[in-house]
Design brief:
This protein is an alpha+beta fold and 91 residues long. Helices cover 43% and strands 30% of the residues. The chain contains 3 helices and 5 strands. The strands form 2 sheets. It has a 3-stranded antiparallel β-sheet with strand order 1-2-5. A two-stranded antiparallel ribbon has the order 3-4. Strand 1 and strand 2 form a beta hairpin. The longest helix has 20 residues. The two termini are 20 Å apart.
């Protein structure tokens, strides 16, 4: 499912226009992004939680040349599925 399909599904399920559903979906994504950027976690009961983890700097190899390269430290978004979501997927 891509974003356009998600918007159509939300519009159909909620009985609203595609434009209103697009605003709602974009609002959810923007809010999650802004919350993670501020350093906070987003916890959705029964669905899962979004958080940010720090990755330390490491060294790696360029697969084409074999040259050693340094990979800088970064922050990565992380999603952990909640129990209800896991149970729904496994049934």
């Amino acid at each position: 499912m891509n974003k356009a399909e998600l918007i159509k599904a939300v519009a159909g399920r909620a009985g609203i226009s595609n434009a209103a559903a697009a605003d709602a979906v974009d609002g959810v994504f923007d809010t999650i992004t802004a919350t993670l950027q501020s350093g906070s976690d987003v916890r959705l009961a029964g669905f899962g939680s979004f958080s940010v983890v720090d990755r330390k700097a490491t060294s790696g190899r360029n697969p084409r040349t074999g040259e050693t390269i340094s990979i800088p430290a970064s922050k990565q978004p992380k999603f952990k599925a909640g129990k209800s979501l896991k149970d729904a997927v496994n049934n």
